[in-house]
Amino acid sequence: MVIRTLLAEDMNLVRGALVALLAYEEDIEVVAEVERGDHILAAAQSCRPDVAVLDIALPGMDGLAAAGELHDKLPGCGVLILTGVGTPGLLKQALEVHVRGFMAKDAPPERLADAIRRVADGERVIDSELAIAAMRPEEPPLTPRELDVIGAAADGASIGEIAASLFLAEGTVRNYLCRTTSKLGARSRIDAIRIARESGWI
Fold this sequence. Notes:
The chain is an alpha/beta fold and about 200 residues long.
């Protein structure tokens, strides 16, 4: 049996590499590729995949929200989430929306293919390294000042407002936000805010 697979990844090079790697697997066929989270459900309803492999951070709608939609509308489609960050909050949310797989984005290709097969068989697959990371007490990798800045940004404050309230130069605020985004492995400031909130740091 060929496992019909939908792949959602917004970075074209990464998505192309994953498609090329999975093409070597005789029992896995990528039947749809999307680059936005809010396009996943329509694509899945059109091609009826057995497994949906979703990046957790997608424009339009994040992978976990899309996984929840898939479970509601296409419960027969198993979802495998790819993430660069393992936290108790993310793992808990993934389980709440009935995700069957939770894997690190940098896992070897053969592990991804094996995970797709196991998810298609109805198994639950949780990357051991992510599970261990998620069980550790979470200490924020951010300094108190970085937490102040990202917390203010999360509340909707502008660069100027953050600078004024924390008695910082606007350039310093931008540097803090850039450093915070980098430390959290986030793709954008919005993604950094999401990670910090889901981890309970702000």
